Structures are given as structure tokens and as C-alpha cells.
Amino acid sequence: MKSIFFITVILLSALYSFSQEPADALRYSWYTQGGTARQQAIGGAMGSLGGEISTVFVNPAGLGFYRTGDLVFTPGYSFLNNKSTYFGRSEKDKKNYLNFGTTGFVIDGGSYNKKSSAFSIAVNRSANFGSNILYRGQNNQSSYSQKFLEEIRNGNVTDANAVAQNFPFGTSLAFNTYWIDTVAGGSAGNFQFKTRAPVATGLLQQNAIQSRGGITEIALAGATNYNNKFLVGGTLGIPILYYKRESTFIEADATTNPDNNFDFASLSENLTTTGGGINLRAGIIYKPTDLLRLGLAIHSPTYYSLTDKYNASVTTNTESYKGTLTQTPSDVGATTPAQFKYTLFTPYHIIGSASYVLRETQDVKNQKGFLTADIEYVNYKFSSFHAGGDNPDQSTKDYLKSLNKAIDKAYKGALNFRAGGELKFTTMMVRLGVAYYSNPYKNINGEKGNRFLLSGGLGYRNKGVFVDLTYVYTMTKDVNFPYRLQYAPFSAANIKGNAGNVLLTLGFKI
Asked: What pTM, to 2 d.p., does this model score?
């Protein structure tokens, strides 16, 4: 099972040409649902309830309950706190940002012969990538520089000139600034290489990662209601993806020895991913009785066409040996930033749902509330990368094929649960919800992750105007690896995140 990490290390060593890694596939598929304040207040469970614009992004059959139209706006504000633990030391960082949920409109398509329809155009913030992560610790097991040495070893490179020139977005920068160096006694074209970082006496390591961006999805949806018994609907989604990550990894000598020819080394990276995609959602809702609603929805994989732009720089201080040196890819003749075009298929989703409506009547004003729950299956290992652009070369195809094998071995299918309820008091409503997004990792090297959400909110509806206010508290457990090695130990930072999200939905009947 450890072969996944051998593959991953080889993949990551190719960073000078390609910037994808298995974690990218998970980032673009493992996230909690966005929606209106009402939907978020009930845990995001909207697979069978219907009659709400956010059904466009869960089970579009729910639009079939509409008899009038809605115009909806959902601004929000998020605040995130991360606590990271690395080699027994804990650090905290935070990030706050403006947000938004489902916004758009629904129009009544009319009715004829016990059949009615509705249509919607909506936009939703499906995923948010905003996050600041900081961790520090003393590592006596390995150095980041060993990743560069493994790249040389796996490529069977013994020519120092090749090391200095052929890896302009990583290894060459480390070599030219003496983070790694040649072993004494070699000859031209037949060198061995070593790290100058003193692993045996310990390295003080720090990784600071700033991420921002998200997935904003535009959707066109429609549904038909047959005799208020059987509803069917579909959605065409057009997600727009933007992700930006800036990181700085530093490792420094843990001793006070000024004569060991190493003070510190740092690697700064900048990655920007942009692109768009397309997906489909289809769903049905069946009412076996007036009180019970059953739903089933299928979300197709999202097909993305993406472009990565990557840049890096290395600074190393080897004290009296060579002093402080900084190098960028342009210093060794590379065009910056490196650009790579590719496509990505994300996992499919299957959602089953049930709702129990208290005092079900045609006039929703007389309904007293509901209980609802969703169960969702997501096959995270289904994600796959494919070459983009015109006439990709064979090395690109082989790289992405190996990457997809790594994804298949790293991740698994998982079940997610969402549940909530609402009580109505004439024009006022009270809501509570809970959601659990389970572990997508196969736990090969201790990776574990999950997300647990608690939510609550209030609603007001009167004379064609409705206002909903919700607070969602999210607890996340995840891991972050500053680097992975094939021939030496490496460790992850354990991340515990606590996030708050406030959403306000303002709507009007049209």
C-alpha cells in the first residue's frame, strides 16, 4: 500500500513541468454545500423537501413545488480559525472574508391538466478555498531538501550541470543556492549529491500557506410536477473555478553552531488555477402520502478545463560557505510563470432523501413545519486528470496516468449525512440542522479528515417578502504535508479548523 507514496513523490518531483498532485483532485470535490440561509439552517438537507431555490443545486425536482416565483439574494460573511500541530507544536491562524449563497430567481411555468412546471436561473458559491494555515516544529527526521535529492536519484542524474539547469522550478534552485550540493570526490559528469541541512541535529521548520478563491456556479434548471405526486427536474451547471495559493516553507538550523555551513533555506511558491466546467443534475421526488416526500438525485461528474500558472524561488544561507543566495526560475533561463493546461473530472454524487411535513396542505401558510434528511455517496477516487491543449506529448500523458493511479490509491468513496427541521409560528420560523462529511482518505499514512456542521436560523415570511438569517458552525479535521519523501520519513501537520458562516437571505414573491 505504500506504493501510493512512491508514486506521489515521483509526481511531486516533476513540479518543474506540472503542478498537479492528488490533493488538487480532493480540493475540488471535498467541500460542504452552499445555499440559501434557509437551506443551510437545516443542515443543507434539500434532497426531497423542495419549494426552495437551492434545490437547483441539490435535487432540481424540488422546483416542481413552486406555484409562484421567487427573487432571492443571499450575502454572507465567513470567519475561519485553523489550529495546526506539527511535531508536537501548535500554531493558530485565521482568515475572514465576504461570502454569498444561492442567489437568483424562480418563475412559474404554468399548469395544465394536473401538471405544472417551474424554471430557475441561479448562481451559488459552491466551494470556498479561503484559508490561512501556519505550522512550525523541530524535525529531526528529514529535510525538505531530500525531496530534491530524490528527484535527482529517480532521474539517475549525475551531471552537476544538468542538475543546475534542468529543474528550474525546484531542484536547480536548491542546487544553485547550495541547499543541496555535490559530494566531495566526484568528477565531471559523475557526481553524487547531498543536503547541507543538518538533519541529525534538528531543523526548525515552518510552513505558511495562504489560499483564496472558490467555485462559483451558474445554473439553469427546470422541473415538472405531475398531479402533486411525482416530480422530476434537471439542472445544467456551469462552474467557474479560481484558486490561488501562496506558500513559504522555511527550515533553519536548530543549533547555535555558526560553523556548520547552514543557517536556513526557504522555498516560496505561487500557484494560480483558473478555468470553467460543465455538469448535469437530475432528480425525482415522490409523495407516497401527503405527509411523506422521498427524493433521489444524481449529480454527474463535473468536467473542468483548467490552467495552472506556477512560480517559485529559493533562498539559502550557508553562512561562511557561500553566504546568502537567492534564485528564481528566470535565473536559469525558464519562462515564468510555468503554464500547464489540463482537464479534470470530479466525482459523481448520489443523494437519497426523505422529508416528513407536519400538517401537509396545499396552502403552505397552514403547514407547521418539517423534518428532513439526506444521505449522499461521493466516490472521491473517481477524480481524474487528462491532458489539455493541442497535441500533448507522451510524457504529459504518462505523468497524468500515474497521477490518476495515485488518486485511485489515496482516496475512497464516502457517505455524507445532512438533516434538519423547521417549526412555523404563523409568520416566524425556527430551524436547526446538522451535517457530517466523512473521511475521503484511505488512511495509508495516517491521513484522516471529516467535517461536522451545526446550524440554526430564523425566518420571517409575510405579504410576499421573506427574510432568513442563519449561523453555521463548521468543525474540520484534515492533514497537510509540507513535503513527501520516498526514501526517508516525513510527517504531516494535523489541522483542526473551526469556521463560522453567517448568511442572510432576502426574497420576494414574483
From this structure: 0.90
Name the amino acid, one letter, at 463: K
The predicted model gives 180-199 an average pLDDT of 88
3-state secondary structure of 37: helix
Cα–Cα dist 374/22, whole Å: 28
Q: Looking up cell 417551474, which residue turns up?
A: 118
Tens digits of per-residue pLDDT, 126-138?
999 999 999 999 9
Strand partners, 431: 422, 457
Sign of dihedral through CA atoms 159, 165, 167, 171? positive
CB 66 within 8 A of CB 370: no
**Strand (E) or helix (H) holding 284:** strand 264-286
Cα(134)–Cα(207) distance, integer angstroms: 6
329: which DSSP letter? G
Closest C-alpha to 116, from 295, 367, 362: 362
Q: From CA 195, how far away is CA 153, in angstroms rounded?
A: 13
Confidence band of 365 (pLDDT split at 50, 70, 90):
low
Closest-CA residue to 483 (of 186, 265, 163, 325): 265
CA angle 126, 129, 131 (to 5 degrees): 145
